[in-house]
Amino acid sequence: MAMHTPPWEMLPDDILRLVFSRVECRADRKVMAGVCGAWRRAVKVKGARGQPPRPRQLPCLLRPNGGDSSVCCLLCSGGDGISVVHAAHLPQQPVDARHARFFGSHDGSWAFLASAQTSGHVLHKFGTDTIIPLPDFMDVQGGESYAIVHLAATISHQPGHASCLVAAIVKTYPIDATSLRAVAFWRMGHGTMASELHRAEIEAMEPEDVMFHKGDLLVLTEQGNLLVWIPEYTDEGRGVEMHGPEHRACGKPRVYNELAVRSQYLVESQNYLLLIVRYREREGHPTSYAQELKVFQMVELDMPDENGILVRRYNWVEMSSLFGEMIFVGRGCSRSYKVANYPGFAEGLYFLDDGSFYHPDLLSRDAADRKYTCSDNGRWVNHRIDRCFPPEQGCSWSPPVWVLP
């Protein structure tokens, strides 16, 4: 006589929770919880003994493409294969994220996006209706104001913190391809107008990346120089005064092994400030894909000047190892994770296709003539490029973006 197999919904709760705790991918956890009501109740009981621990998350690569958007999960690959692609159901309310342009992210599944390509800038928390409008205008010295387009952004604290600052790399609108990029800042809850960092200090040194580090605002320029502003919070006006800049580093050579600098990023790793440089073939080569990546650490030295007085000097020094770290690079949202916490993974640098940052004229084109590429994604591991994300044709709405856990 054949043995009767009990239905899946009859599995004991403790076994279900044990299985659930082994599922690391957030998308797979949602699928498991949706099998039936019994499974959903078993894995979502709050405070129960044996409650599944929160999965060890890594950033996912979101590839926006209207209704066909997808997300690439590295955890599902086990660390040594091609990432697994899941469907991404982007919300249509309170903003239509399916047809928005993404320009950054923050911890806790926050995303920066422009609902109308060149306007409607907001900070949105995935999975909720929470949106925080960001300034579409910037005031400059002399009392004038200009419409701005955000190209990259970062924040100093979690939204809702009393001292949360937004810093963004912007272009004035209408976009002039020959004009310089600027840096705007704004304290949340203090007016609707952003302010420009003193342009004279970054003239001819276009900003490449922005980040907050130990409370200070750091701006990396195209030449590899680092400029630092120190915020002073007030209860009046725009709520903050920015003091600076202080120059803390000299630039790096623009060419390495016949390769030219493609892009540069700042990241904090093990309390150290790092510079990540992506190199590509020089101008005239048929491909502009990343060919090599290098890592530099900010080093501080006290050296005597011409009068014998000790002066603090800063410089970028190349690193030979990542010392057990995985680093995900993106403007305003680079993050570092310890390899030891992710069995099967190896130290390396993960990057995405953000070449549209250098072509802001794309934003003003009609959707039919606008194409954001999504093919130069991957990782630098064992001194080579590994295309660990499945190829994607790109779309008319947005470049790819990291979703940070």
Automatic annotation (TrEMBL):
User: KIB1-4 beta-propeller domain spans which residues?
Assistant: 86-353
* Any Pfam family the entry gives: Beta-prop_KIB1-4
Task: Check the UniProt entry and state the signal peptide residues, or none.
Answer: none
**What InterPro entries is this protein classified in?**
F-box-like_dom_sf, KIB1-4_b-propeller
Name of the protein: KIB1-4 beta-propeller domain-containing protein
